[in-house]
Amino acid sequence: MNLGLKGKSVLVLASSKGLGKATAYQFAAEGANVFISSRNKETLEKVKKDIQEGTGNKNVEYAVCDITNPDSIKQMISTIVETNGTIDVLINNAGGPPAGSFEDFDDVAWQQAFELNLLSFIRTIREVIPYMKKQGSGHIVNIASSSIKQPIDHLILSNTFRTGIVGLAKSLSQELAADNILINTIGPGKISTDRILQLNSKRADELNASMEKVKSDAEKQIPIGRYGTPEEFAKTVVFLCSGANTYITGQSLLVDGGMVKAL
To answer: What Gene3D superfamilies does this protein map onto (predicted)?
Structure first.
């Protein structure tokens, strides 16, 4: 199937590793003009080279950006538009907030999680919409968490702000449909990334158990019986932002191997 992504201008946030990097790689493999972004220039340079060499696509660039800083977001979008002329696809992504329960966090922690995991998405969408409206098309995917369907124990910050992303996307799907801008939210389940290792390590410490035991117990709750790979997740993102998707908008989709039982 031709996904119609060759030459499309794509921005993937938080793409120096994990789900973001895998997503950027898949877009590059489809021939898109991809911008990756994170706060670390040296890491971005290495990832850019890795993607170019792995896909054979030389149209991969990077923009250093702190997505909690509105001026940094504006500069990133300006750089991409200067290079590619527009933005066809936006992949909103951010690292997860700290694990913990309600009494573990003060106002500072709540504000930081809000700015990282919700306000950053709002600000970036605000910056790209004028270009998408001008050309009469666009795709936006917000990467969230399986907590958009079922809260996860010990992740109250994530549970709160990830669901805010769903409300944002659902509302925008109504407002932007007339301009042929489609927006969806994807929640990863247990995907093999550094974030999952970090959460597993914290859980192992709490239970005084091994990392292997924590992973094995988690896999027993997944009908497919294993963690997903970043590549499997990324392919779903790419499909939703491709020419193959012309009618799916305002939806929340889990990539979780059947783990979440909520409807």
So the answer is: NAD(P)-binding Rossmann-like Domain
